[in-house]
Design a protein that fits this description.
single chain; alpha+beta; Rossmann fold; 4 domains; 5-stranded antiparallel beta sheet; disordered C terminus
């Protein structure tokens, strides 16, 4: 890579740089993948947050040994890039005549490509709509990136020249006069005014968003051919763009389905394959998305604007609908089986040192492992894998990177999945941080947001109901509206005299738990050298029974941290206040008979409730009396049938104190 002085300053001064790496394409041919110079994750030519400055890109390239750097073309800059492929002999430097003619006519900054076989030209000017590739020639002015080497071609200018008219003549020569595309009514649609990012976000959080996401990522399984998948994606884009051809074309080129065939002429009238596919999609479309008039539920999304609360015109979008207008809901889905309902906030709380953050990072790794079938975390099924964002308010990037790498090695992974993203809030205001996090979630289709932790992320008094309710309404609701599941890590209240650990709740107002749809407590259970065993208990579940408490053991090493589930024994489960009295007594009696007073002491259940519950269990034939009677006349009982260790229990607490009849 050449020095910065060779690359025009007009490019170097812009924050549109990234690095790139090699990757295998579908057909086995290597392609260049854009990479975020800040994080090392895959970048997007549609997301400026994944780009950086020139010096940042160069530093990342040198530090991490990437093949090179690249520049992203956008509609906001004046540049166009021309790629002449396979036109140069890398040994002699000779250039084929057809390419020399183009280089001479454009007479602007030109450089040798990374392979040495091609030439890249950068000029100022906007390209007409239509074709972008023909044979070994292609050019772009937005939505793509060019590798930049700084190896300027001898005899070409050092500056980037204005060449708009030359670009238009060249386009007409290669692709013919641009024709206006018509829909079935013969009129050109103007679209709905949404940005590319808004279109992608809304399409992904619709009822059929998972199908759109698969096509967008280049997965055409379930379609008869790649061409059928192309048409399916174009039909979806036709709807979401409001039928705007240019937006459809621009978005399709950003998708994983895009390939050179898109720009190939397949018809006698000069139309490209891509043009014909889009026209066919428009011909079959009769409805188009209008964010200004669409029902809240008509397309399966909550149309809440950028902040989740307003429509496109900035007006409150609050109105009633008939229950019969609302589509029948899909079956309840869980991001983590029985514990974390998908699309709703879950609260994870515990004392300091209970490994809450390590558990959350481990769960994030499980969710982020795309391509792994039937993922499990501590024996529980992961309902949907996808992009995870870890929003950090406590530690810095280096420490969290160390932790997640230790956990990844413990899982046998060589690297952290690309779908696991990180954002640090240090040095930024809470408002700025949450706005940026919401934008990231929409841009990348985030499935799980891990907020670590609520204390420093909270503005106001956590003990004031008004402030807590306001936080969930203003800050959490936009994420829910975008279809993001949020796992909130929080500390809990101090232990009061006579209080058990499991009776503690998250610190502050009770509305923290009230407004979460699932609440999970983490209790340190056993500490040994190099290991920690914790107990996880679900204390609230709005949509189903409480899960049976279970254990998890973390073993800490210098290079790796391992995590595995540990089943609690009957005696431990008998003490669990999240289980109802009947289940706790069943567990307490599983090993041996006992007197009611012993059961009350072992389980912490009031003696009157113990006697009342035993009476019910005896009538049901589950418990019977033995021949033993103590000095006070209390009769010993035993379990008739051993109690199975259910994975789910009804989660109701018995607080009846009616004496036994």
């Amino acid at each position: 890579m050449s020095t910065g002085g060779t690359i025009p300053y007009e490019l170097r001064e812009r924050e549109q740089w990234l690095v790139w790496r090699w990757s295998a394409a579908r057909a086995g041919k290597r392609t260049k993948q854009p990479v975020d110079p800040h994080s090392g994750e895959l970048a997007s030519t549609a997301n400026p947050a994944t780009w950086g400055g020139y010096e940042v890109a160069v530093a990342a390239c040198e530090a991490f040994d990437y093949p090179g750097i690249g520049f992203v073309f956008t509609p906001d800059d004046p540049f166009s890039g021309i790629d002449l492929d396979g036109c140069r002999d890398p040994e002699s430097g000779d250039i084929e005549a057809w390419a020399e003619k183009i280089i001479g006519s454009l007479d602007s900054y030109s450089e040798v490509s990374p392979s040495g076989h091609g030439i890249h030209i950068i000029a100022k000017g906007t390209l007409p709509a239509g074709g972008r590739k023909r044979g070994r020639f292609e050019f772009y002015d937005s939505g793509r990136f060019f590798t930049i080497t700084g190896e300027r071609l001898d005899g070409t200018p050092c500056e980037i020249k204005e060449r708009g008219e030359v670009l238009r003549r060249l386009h007409r020569h290669l692709f013919g006069k641009t024709e206006q595309t018509s829909n079935e009514h013969g009129e050109r649609r103007e679209g709905n005014g949404l940005s590319d990012q808004e279109i992608i976000a809304r399409a992904m959080r619709a009822i059929n968003g998972s199908e759109f996401a698969k096509l967008w990522c280049g997965d055409f399984k379930g379609h008869a051919s790649a061409s059928e998948a192309d048409l399916a994606l174009c039909s979806s884009l036709a709807f979401w763009t409001g039928g705007e051809l240019e937006a459809m074309d621009r978005l399709f080129r950003q998708s994983g389905l895009y390939r050179p065939k898109w720009d190939e002429r397949h018809f006698g009238d000069g139309r490209t394959y891509g043009r014909a596919t889009m026209e066919k999609a428009l011909e079959g479309s009769s409805k188009f998305y209008d964010p200004r008039s669409s029902s809240l539920y008509r397309y399966g999304i909550r149309d809440g604007g950028e902040n989740g609360l307003e429509n496109k015109d900035g007006q409150p979008h609050l109105r009633s609908v008939q229950f019969n207008e609302i589509p029948d809901p899909e079956p309840r889905r869980y991001l983590l089986e029985g514990l974390i309902p998908q699309g709703y906030p879950t609260l994870l709380h515990g004392d300091g040192g209970s490994a809450k953050s390590m558990l959350a990072l481990s769960l994030g790794l499980a969710v982020a492992q795309r391509g792994r079938a039937e993922m499990k975390w501590l024996g529980l099924g992961v309902g949907e894998v996808g992009v995870v964002l870890y929003l950090d308010f406590e530690l810095d990037a280096a420490e969290q990177r160390r932790r997640v790498m230790q956990l990844a090695r413990g899982e046998g992974l060589e690297r952290v999945p690309d779908c696991f993203r990180y954002m640090s809030a240090l040095g930024h205001s809470l408002r700025e941080t949450f706005q940026a996090a919401l934008a990231e979630c929409k841009e990348h289709g985030v499935k799980l947001l891990i907020l670590d932790s609520l204390g420093p992320a909270f503005e106001g008094d956590t003990e004031a109901a008004r402030d807590v309710i306001g936080f969930f309404h203003r800050v959490m609701e936009p994420f829910r509206a975008a279809g993001v599941t949020v796992l909130i890590i929080d500390h809990q209240s101090h232990l009061r005299s006579g209080q058990r650990y499991q009776d503690k709740s998250a610190f502050g107002s009770v509305y923290k738990s009230n407004l979460a749809r699932s609440v999970i407590q983490v209790e340190p259970f056993s500490r040994e050298e190099g290991s920690l065993t914790v107990r996880l208990r679900q204390k609230k579940h709005n949509f189903g029974p409480l899960a049976t408490p279970f254990g998890a053991k973390l073993e800490f090493g210098e290079e790796r941290v391992t995590l595995h589930a540990e089943e609690l024994d009957a005696a431990d489960l008998a003490e669990e206040g999240t289980l109802n009295a009947a289940d706790r007594l069943r567990f307490a009696l599983q090993d041996e008979p006992a007197y009611p007073e012993e059961l009350a002491e072992d389980t912490g259940i009031h003696i009157k409730t113990v006697r009342n519950t035993l009476s019910k269990l005896r009538k049901a034939g589950e418990v019977e009396r033995t021949e033993e009677v103590d000095a006070g006349g209390s009769k010993q009982v035993r379990l008739v049938v051993p109690h199975p260790n259910h994975s789910k229990l009804d989660g109701n607490r018995d607080n009846e104190e009616t004496p036994e009849h």
